[in-house]
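Budget justification note: compute hours in this period were largely spent on complex prediction jobs such as the one shown. Inputs:
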Amino acid sequence: MGDPVKVTIDGTEHEVDGGTLLIQAAQDAGTYIPRFCWHKRMKPVGMCRMCLVEVDTGRGPMLTTSCTTPCSDGMVVDTKSDIVTKAQEGILEFLLINHPLDCPVCDRGGECPLQDQTMAYGPGESRFVEEKRHYEKPIDISELVLLDRERCILCARCTRFSDEISGDPLIEFQDRGNGTQVLTFPDEPFKSYFSGNTVQICPVGALTARPYRFRARPWDLEAVEATCPHCSVGCRINVQSSQNQVLRFLGVDNEPTNQGWLCDKGRFGFEYIGSPDRLTTPLVRGEGGELEETTWAAALQVVAQWLQDVIAEDGPDSVAGLGGARGTNEDAYAFGKLLRAVIGTNNLDAQLEDGLNPQFLAAATPRASIPDLDAAQTILLWGPDLKEELPVLYLRVRQAAQNGANLIVIHPRRTGLHDVATATVAYAPGRGPEILDRLRSGTGDLAAARKLLMGGGPIVGLIGRPGLTEDPMLAEAVAAFVRDLPDAKIMPLARRSNLFGALDMGLAPSLLPGRAAIASPEARSALAVEWATPIPEATGRDAAGIIAGLADGTLRSLFLFGADPIRDFPDQAAARAALEAANLVVAVDQFLTDSSRLADVVFPAEGFTEVEGTVTNLEGRVQKVARLVAGPGQSRPPWAIFEDIAAAVGSSLGAVSAASIHKEIAQVAPAYRGLSWEQLELGPGREGVIVPGETGEQPLRYVPVDIGIAPRAARLALHSARTLYDDGVHVRFSRSLAQLTAEPFAFVNPEDGARLGIAAGSLVRVTGSSGAADLEVQHDPGLAAGAVYVPFNLEETVGIGDGLDVKLEVIS
Amino acid sequence: MKILTTRMEAHPSDSHTIERYVATDGYKAARKAILDMSPGECHEEVKASNIRGRGGAGFPCGVKWGFLPPDVRPRYLVINGDESEPGTFKDRQLLERDPHQVIEGIIISAYAIDCNQAFIYIRGEYPKPARRIEQALAEAYDAGYLGKNIFGSGFDLEVTLHLGGGAYICGEETALLNSLEGKRGEPRIKPPFPAVEGLYGKPTIVNNVETISNMPWIVTNGGAAYAAIGPEGSVGTRMFSLSGHVRKPGNYEIVMGMTFREFIEDYGGGVPGDRAVKCFIPGGASAPWFTGDQLDLPITIDDVGNAGSMLGSGAIVVMDETTNVVEAAHSIVSFFAHESCGQCTPCREGTSWLEMVLARILRGQGRPVDLELLLDVSDNIAPGLGWPPKMTTICPLGPSAVSPVTSILRHFRDEVEAMIPAGGPHG
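Corresponding output:
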């Protein structure tokens, strides 16, 4: 922004930054200028003409659009002159002459900018007696979005969003003049991970979303702000319900996180909440071997009895807990306290698939925030394909690159960011250490990337696991390299929604609540005082250790909290074997999943939108979630279930409400110390709090190191990574998203295809370290040579395993 | 006195060939400019000539060139040959009959503004002019007038021909630039003006075919000589396309300053049947109309402007006393409604609305309120209904559609009223 300038708006002088768009400057000064096409997150186009005002820059008043006029010194603006008022009234009349006025059956009715502005600025009656424009209405432009061209006022918000923001310009204006219409290209649907944003920013009901269509009238909706539960970006959302049914998520513009945008998984992934498949009563495995409905008291009695027996026989370390990343911090804290303080084991892990060092994820330093991306000169992304795993972070990186940041992307395949990247490298999994060496030395195809990294900061390294066959220590080696660059910060990446919160609550063998290391005697004794019980000292097992321990009989019982290891653990076959070998599996879940189906006791849990609490995103930003509807049947908040289990064995977690647990966290967990429930209330301008904030402290500052892992070579290396719509629980039980689950293919580079005689379209048997799957082949020129990409966790790809070597045999 | 059409009149069969062009002193001006003059001197001559743009807006060409920011390269020169204003067909003749004159003008202009890449944008409905230019470009490249190191001077110039897809709006300079870039032909918001941020975001001069065709003469004879032709403010010769109710429609190159009556009588041979001129359009379909009693206005940019219209693209359309003005206005409004790009609400919706109301009146279903409605809808597109118009739109296309409506309601209101049935279901 430029130097301050003086602008007179309707007779009052204001000082604003030179270059600020007049429409924004006026709004900041309390004068709302009506508009349809302008959106502060997109480039102005001045098309709808609704924001016309009279501007005098010394040559007399001129009618001009305030959305395209930057403020300059001495500008005199009249937003309410007769000519302006008449022009605005005229624009509204023009917009309405061909508008169908089918407001009674329009989803937008009641929250429609066109309605509202007609009320405020429009003519009282229509003078149009001719035939209106007609189009077939509505038409499907994707599985999720419908377009009604009669309602459309051609503001270009949707087309600009797709072009400028999400980078998949699949909708465009067609024809011209009176026949101008928004359309998709022939035979190419509006297949975008971000399509729902166009529905939200549409100023009329031209774009509607199938999951919400005709479900409610806006004035019947109850709403509450919350944080999206679908990944670790922590997008601010508005949850809306009617008659105890969650019907819609809308993006809320929180500057540091999502700036108003959501991905479609986040936006439409609310349907699972009201799914008829939700668990409503406790289940216990009966004599016949089937899960049978029972009472809370009976189920708790079974668990209590078994726990007492097993602890007496084999000790507390025969028990383990997996999960906790899908709930709130309060749930995670209660789960950890149950396992450590009541049962007495450190066998607990919230991470299932990433396998990264939890201390790296929770306490890597110096840690970047999302807004650091905006100011970065160079961004290095060496981790997951953000578009598939952390979609709204993808938008932010895309925006930073478009605004001039250098972007380096290192990944086994062409990612969604390749078109805006400055340097890209595709490499076969296993070869990461070689690539890192070349990046260090700046040789070959890494010369350009190194030059950018040496060109000065600020630098942000977005670092995680590119795929599940990649050595998890590679991410730390990359982080160790990046953090030594001048003015560099790192953001460790992991996908699962509240994983960072769960780790902060101590759901890892090596961590205690508040980013303390369990290895620290001070941290253990401080917590022991607070919990009034000794903290177990034996080294705990992580997810892989727990799976192995169950399989070999060292462990006997397992608590699953919102965890489906049979689907989410990289070696899915091993997870299945482990669950089958366990003597007792207790699941706290919302659904019967592949894993909870094998449990002996299942407790129905309330979840997102049904419980209040806090969550922590990948920056370490703590934000709230809120309760808007009651969970189905007898389902209860997870923390309350853990409290009941503790009580059933004669102990207590001291939890009476989410707020009470939060209060304990703020007292016990160093990084969260002093964080008050009230300070986390959501609302305009409330951005959440990155911990440790002013009142907290972080005892553990983890410095990633390069332990010098060796490159691994494979004749064909498996690249196993998630797509946005995989066969995870939330997608599977969200009707609209379930149909979008990615098609299962084995992707090979066309050159490999030619070399190995594997044609596109042929059927191959893909044999990995744990199992095989028969898949159709697609050639993917963006995939590194020597790699075979198989999407993780699709129904058809389950159980291949996470070994690097993979074999392809042509079946037909 | 003629400048632009001398060659084609003297050599009607082969004025378009490079042989004829060179034999009639062609490319000497370019040679002189490049070898004997600095770019600045060329620019000074053009400034001194006081030539105003022939595309419609009439902006002084030398002044426009001066708006280029001094330090930004590359710069582009774009020749607007998208001649689409109804009634205008002068550029067609210049492109078709003397294409080398256009190319020589481009060489001089590009040299003067230090630009090495020029584009000629010709409307898609002009296949023959495009073929002629294509041929002439090939000849000019072969002869070394285009390409690298022209005349051994070290000056390089590439010229690229591009054909439009058939949209009137692409004659608007910023829509033309969008079209050249492969985007939808929609006018851009100004500022920034093309001279500052034009094609591919680079400084760009857009000049009309006729403007550019004058450059060889200006360099040969000097800017002062050009400025001395014709009345002040409307110097030089100018091509006018005369059509409508005249005996001899066609293109005429004249020195400005004569009256419309003289032009229509002396050049157009008057109105067939010696009927009276009811009204005429002085400068293309966008221009507000004049009535028969304004025939003695001198044809100059300022006289026509002061009388509330414009010389525009130089298209004079004569309507005699037999004309149904509502039908005529409807025809023009239909054109603009069809050609609206659709960006701006008032133009997209308003021009079609005007068209529908006029069509209804023509069907005998007009209502008395329609007259005020037409004016008020027009006012919402062009507030105040003046000319040059105030606009609620980005470009003047919408306000152009208003011109015939206001013209008939100002000058022939009784004729419009006469078409409205008294009483009846629509009363």
